[in-house]
Amino acid sequence: MTRRSRTIAVLAAVIGGGLAVIGSTQPWLEATLRDGANAVLPVPGTDALPLVTPLGLAALALGLALSIVGTALRYVFGALGVLIGGALLAESVRIALTAPPEAVVRVVAESTGLTGVAAVETLVSGIAVTAWPWITAVGAALVCAGGVLTLVTARSWRSTARRYRTDAAAEVRQPRGSRPHDSHDPIDSWDDLSRGSDPTA
């Protein structure tokens, strides 16, 4: 169960962060202009919510780091995961539910040359919400859940560093030359040749 908890926490942060990063490049909103032709301007996640990319990347890095850090840092990273996931979840849901005019200002300005929320309200007849804010919200919820799981189970995770120290100690107790030849890897064989011995003998 301990190993499973760590795996679930790491995967939740990595998958959730990955969904956020992918979502940042996809259209979150579609603004329809009042220009007779009813031109539709797609608004990517990076414009609708500028923080989505840095928060997604932070979640990815956090998930990868969770697999190697010690107990103290697990609690720190778990708390960060809750904060990152919670902030991203709240903002994604806000945009999905309200489709705020300020979220499309930049795209409308690039298309029409006019800036400001007032110009958007004048030029845009409607703002439609795509599925991507909700998909990003799901990813944010995963990051948050992974952080909570880390805080609850971090103390019981096996220490990666301790495992490496144990393996190194076993290596010291068993001299290289005393190991059977069939356990040698290519590096061991190269070392034997460098010392003038035949590893195949």
Characterize the structure shown.
By secondary structure, the protein is mainly alpha-helical. It is 65% helix and 9% strand. It contains nine helices and three strands. The chain has helices at residues 2-24, 45-48, 52-66, 71-98, 105-112, 117-123, 132-153, 160-173, 186-194; strands at residues 27-33, 40-44, 124-129. Strands 2-1-3 form a three-stranded antiparallel β-sheet. Strand 1 (27-33) and strand 2 (40-44) form a beta hairpin. The chain is elongated. The two termini are 46 Å apart.
Structure characteristics:
201 residues; mainly alpha; 9 helices; elongated
Strand percentage:
5-15%
Contiguous uncertain segments of 5+ residues: 162-167
* Net shape: elongated
Q: How many individual β-strands?
A: 3
Largest sheet: 3 strands, antiparallel
In DSSP terms (H or I, runs of 4 or more residues), the helix count works out at 9
End-to-end gap: 46 Å
The largest beta-sheet arranges its strands as 2-1-3
Whole-angstrom Rg: 26 Å
Explain the layout of strands and helices:
Blueprint: H1 2-24, E1 27-33, E2 40-44, H2 45-48, H3 52-66, H4 71-98, H5 105-112, H6 117-123, E3 124-129, H7 132-153, H8 160-173, H9 186-194
Antiparallel strand pairs: 1-2, 1-3
Summarize this entry quickly.
This protein is mainly alpha-helical.
